[in-house]
Amino acid sequence: MVDPLSLTALAALAASGAINEGIKFIYGQAGEVLKRWRSHKEGEGGDDSPLPVEGAGQVLEGEIEPPRPNYEVVERIEDDLKDLVARLGNYANGIEEPDPGDRDLAETVEALRQALEVVYGQRITFKGEEREQSGPVVYGVAEVDHALQAVTGVRARLVKSGQITGEARVGRAEGPVTGVDVDSVGG
């Protein structure tokens, strides 16, 4: 049985009238990630600049920062990315019209979105979805039995946007314990 929440991305895109643009957006992003990964792994150095995010404003709630793919993650999920991109090709290229009620399509869109979120370290939220806005996500946990010095879940400097969550769990502390330590937030 399909989790009803896996249908939300496609349903939100359909409700906003941007189903074709949403599919094209994640298809294009994943394609760029795979092209850069191939170049990177073939030793050509690859393009290290952030990926362009054209069209994001039309389909995304909030803003993603121009992403730099995490190639360690891409290496682990390369085959899955290729499979998902292939399954969306006909929709992204306008050969087939997407059906918002198609469970397989909804699962494919959701799987590719989740893969890109991990590769980018950012949330990707389509307009009309009931979830946190698109943008960078940082989550850190420090778990220590006995801390002799300071323990911090996340330490960040100059956070311009996104969401930061940090936890510090310490059994016995002989120094300060902090979940999140941020120097600056606004841009």
Structural class: alpha/beta
Helix percent band: 40-55%
Give the helices and strands as they follow along the chain.
HHHHHEEEEE
Write down how many β-strands occur, each being a DSSP E stretch of 2 or more residues: 5
Describe this structure in words.
This protein has 187 residues and is α/β, with parallel strands linked by helices. The protein has helices spanning 8-15, 19-41, 56-59, 71-92, 103-120, and strands at 122-123, 135-147, 151-156, 163-173, 177-182. Helix 1 packs across helix 5, helix 2 packs across helix 4 (71-92) and helix 2 (19-41) crosses helix 5 (103-120). The longest helix has 23 residues, at 19-41. It is globular and about 65 Å long.
Quick recap:
The chain is α/β, with parallel strands linked by helices.
Write the layout of secondary structure elements.
Elements: H1 8-15, H2 19-41, H3 56-59, H4 71-92, H5 103-120, E1 122-123, E2 135-147, E3 151-156, E4 163-173, E5 177-182
Parallel strand pairs: 2-4, 3-5
Antiparallel strand pairs: 1-2
